[in-house]
Specification:
By secondary structure, the protein is mainly β. It has one domain (16-136): Hotdog Thioesterase (Thiol Ester Dehydrase, Chain A, Roll). The chain has helices at residues 29-39, 53-61; strands spanning 19-21, 25-26, 72-82, 91-103, 107-117, 123-134. Strands 1, 2, 3, 4, 5 and 6 form a 6-stranded antiparallel sheet that branches. β5 (107-117) and β6 form a beta hairpin. The longest helix is centred in the first third of the chain and has 11 residues, at 29-39. The model has no long low-confidence stretch (mean pLDDT 93).
């Protein structure tokens, strides 16, 4: 009988170089309008998605990967660059790769490089996320 998959990913489980990719989704006019309604951002061009919408959608898509989520204690930083606009009708996905890991007393720092790709595989946005991730609790370490 196989052991059940872990429901969380702790610092000890993180491997530098590990890469994951989310499923894809098509950006719709409804996504753009809901985002604009929440943020009160005005549309210069209704066919262009708001600049941060692809990042928001990609973060949500991260919950659809089969790997258990990181046990994040704190979101420490974001460096982000927009390469080109995403338009309504574009299909995006996200790719993340662990580029650094540093252990500390109660947890550790994990840095991921992330890219948002369009339907042609071109990078439309990219950057780095820095997380403070928990170490496995001692009672769960066995």
């Amino acid at each position: 009988m196989n052991a059940p998959a872990p429901s969380r990913t702790y610092l000890e489980d993180v491997e530098v170089g590990y890469e994951t990719r989310t499923p894809a989704m098509t950006v719709t006019e409804a996504h753009a309008e809901i985002y604009r309604g929440l943020t009160r951002e005005l549309a210069d061009d209704p066919r262009t998605a708001p600049v941060l919408l692809p990042l928001c959608l990609a973060i949500g898509l991260g919950w659809r990967v089969p790997e258990p989520p990181l046990v994040v204690l704190a979101f420490m930083g974001l460096e982000w660059q927009v390469v080109r606009d995403v338009r309504v009708g574009d299909t995006i996905s996200s790719r993340a790769r662990v580029v650094a890991k540093r252990s500390m007393r109660e947890g550790g720092v994990v840095i991921e490089e992330r890219e948002i790709l369009d339907q042609h595989g071109a990078v439309v946005q990219h950057g780095k996320f820095t997380f403070l991730v928990a170490k496995r609790p001692k009672e769960a370490a066995a």
